[in-house]
């Protein structure tokens, strides 16, 4: 009797285990879901979150997240015909994920390679007005995003969200919520690969797929972007400008390095104290007319959002004015088009009022003249490198090609996927042992 029961139950148990394990493989669509669980190991309770069924554009028409889109699709072929790349600078692609600034890297004076040459060309790196904090969040949307939106709404603040296209098609309702809440949406590429390692055509594909994803979710055609890792040179800048994009970096000393927290390479307290020290140093400078600053944070994990709430409260208590990038630049046209309908030409933007800031006398100003860089200081064990270089170097340790991790957040995603896998395997093993033990006791 016992052996009959076992022979019946064991296949059932094995099937249960196999069913559980099938989730370990994870589809691309599950990627951001586990991210919020990374720091607190909550991923076990998470279920893969699919693209909203209410989305009018199914995620399946898009390229796979995390991969550089193919150039062979009809969409990309069409986009390539619309972008004139014939005058692109002849600057070779870099190598690495992301490229390094050390051995083997050739200093090309024409490249103005932001991470390694401390050169930002005409990228936006500051807010023009004194005591203004340009608030930005990269790598979303994700499951961590709603809590941030709730907090920002409570504080009546607007931010710029640099969205990963591959995440937008998985959480289109969150991108829409961001837009409807008055936040400024911008591009952070499709797959978060370092753009200087890609061909001109691949850069177009990365940007255009993201542009389409955000348009499909929100109706807005974005015109601001932030390169993953801050990895940009004059070749990449040329391609981006041909598509009408404005490149936004961040102010060096205001990189929160919050992406390191879920990886346990930086404590939340260290990130908090470091950022607050940067604010105090900024406030201590008495120079009249000093520009405001742009921070780098992420809404990819719960702990990042929790830190953001602390830092924002601290900044507000120190009389900083917190704005989105569109608002801090007084840009009346933060989008290239609005109310875009797929299949129909987008509505050209004549004037879109900034989300929260009334127009001022500085509207229409020539932005590049305000684009000085903030003073560069260092912190942490890699003190001989600038914070931007530290940001890069971090990827050398956590962003191998095998894991395709990225400094500003994707490592957390990869890491949490791994945690999900381990936890599911552990639970499966525990269930198997429990069943066998229970049967053996019959
Ligand atoms: Zn990023």
From TrEMBL:
<feature type="region of interest" description="Disordered">
    <location>
        <begin position="28"/>
        <end position="68"/>
    </location>
</feature>
<dbReference type="GO" id="GO:0005975">
    <property type="term" value="P:carbohydrate metabolic process"/>
</dbReference>
<dbReference type="GO" id="GO:0004099">
    <property type="term" value="F:chitin deacetylase activity"/>
</dbReference>
<feature type="signal peptide">
    <location>
        <begin position="1"/>
        <end position="26"/>
    </location>
</feature>
<dbReference type="InterPro" id="IPR050248">
    <property type="entry name" value="Polysacc_deacetylase_ArnD"/>
</dbReference>
<keyword id="KW-0479">Metal-binding</keyword>
<dbReference type="InterPro" id="IPR011330">
    <property type="entry name" value="Glyco_hydro/deAcase_b/a-brl"/>
</dbReference>
<feature type="compositionally biased region" description="Low complexity">
    <location>
        <begin position="374"/>
        <end position="383"/>
    </location>
</feature>
<dbReference type="GO" id="GO:0016020">
    <property type="term" value="C:membrane"/>
</dbReference>
<feature type="region of interest" description="Disordered">
    <location>
        <begin position="351"/>
        <end position="384"/>
    </location>
</feature>
<dbReference type="GO" id="GO:0046872">
    <property type="term" value="F:metal ion binding"/>
</dbReference>
<feature type="domain" description="NodB homology">
    <location>
        <begin position="131"/>
        <end position="323"/>
    </location>
</feature>
<keyword id="KW-0732">Signal</keyword>
<dbReference type="Pfam" id="PF01522">
    <property type="entry name" value="Polysacc_deac_1"/>
</dbReference>
<feature type="compositionally biased region" description="Low complexity">
    <location>
        <begin position="48"/>
        <end position="60"/>
    </location>
</feature>
<keyword id="KW-0378">Hydrolase</keyword>
<dbReference type="GO" id="GO:0009272">
    <property type="term" value="P:fungal-type cell wall biogenesis"/>
</dbReference>
<dbReference type="InterPro" id="IPR002509">
    <property type="entry name" value="NODB_dom"/>
</dbReference>
<protein>
    <submittedName>
        <fullName>Peptidoglycan-N-acetylglucosamine deacetylase</fullName>
    </submittedName>
</protein>
<feature type="compositionally biased region" description="Low complexity">
    <location>
        <begin position="28"/>
        <end position="40"/>
    </location>
</feature>
């Amino acid at each position: 009797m016992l052996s009959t029961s076992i022979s019946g139950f064991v296949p059932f148990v094995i099937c249960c285990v196999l069913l559980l394990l099938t989730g370990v493989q994870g589809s691309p669509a599950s990627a951001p879901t586990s991210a919020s669980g990374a720091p607190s190991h909550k991923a076990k309770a998470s279920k893969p979150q699919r693209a909203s069924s209410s989305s009018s554009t199914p995620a399946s028409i898009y390229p796979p997240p995390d991969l550089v889109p193919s150039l062979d699709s009809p969409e990309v072929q069409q986009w390539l015909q619309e972008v004139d790349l014939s005058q692109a600078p002849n600057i070779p692609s870099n190598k690495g994920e992301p490229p390094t600034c050390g051995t083997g890297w050739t200093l090309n004076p024409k490249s103005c390679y932001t991470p390694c040459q401390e050169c930002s060309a005409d990228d936006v790196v500051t807010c023009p007005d004194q005591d203004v904090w340009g608030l930005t969040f990269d790598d979303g949307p994700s499951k961590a995003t709603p809590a941030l939106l709730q907090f920002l709404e409570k504080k009546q603040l607007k931010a710029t969200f640099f969205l990963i296209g591959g995440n937008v098609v998985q959480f289109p309702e969150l991108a829409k919520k961001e837009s409807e809440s008055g936040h400024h949406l911008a591009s952070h590429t499709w797959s978060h690969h370092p753009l200087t390692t890609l061909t001109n055509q691949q850069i177009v594909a990365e940007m255009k797929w993201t542009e389409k994803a955000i348009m499909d979710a929100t109706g807005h055609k974005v015109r601001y972007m932030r390169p993953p890792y801050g990895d940009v040179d004059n070749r990449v800048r040329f391609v981006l400008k041909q598509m009408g994009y404005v490149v936004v970096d961040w102010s060096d000393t205001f990189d929160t390095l919050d992406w390191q927290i879920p990886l346990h390479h930086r404590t939340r307290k260290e990130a908090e104290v470091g950022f607050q020290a940067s604010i105090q140093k900024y406030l201590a400078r008495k120079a009249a007319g000093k520009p405001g600053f742009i921070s780098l944070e992420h809404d990819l994990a719960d702990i990042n959002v929790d830190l953001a709430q602390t830092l924002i409260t601290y900044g507000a208590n120190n009389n900083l004015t917190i704005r989105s990038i569109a608002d801090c630049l007084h840009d009346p046209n933060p989008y290239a088009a609005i109310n875009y309908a797929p299949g129909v030409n987008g509505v050209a933007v004549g004037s879109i009022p900034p989300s929260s800031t009334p127009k001022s006398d500085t509207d229409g100003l020539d932005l590049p003249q305000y684009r000085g860089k903030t003073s560069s200081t260092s912190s942490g064990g890699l003190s001989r490198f600038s914070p931007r270089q530290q940001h890069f170097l971090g990827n050398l340790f956590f962003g191998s090609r095998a894991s395709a991790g990225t400094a500003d957040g994707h490592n957390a995603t990869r890491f949490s996927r791994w945690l999900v896998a381990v936890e599911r395997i552990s639970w499966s093993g525990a269930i198997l042992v429990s069943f066998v033990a229970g049967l053996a006791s019959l």
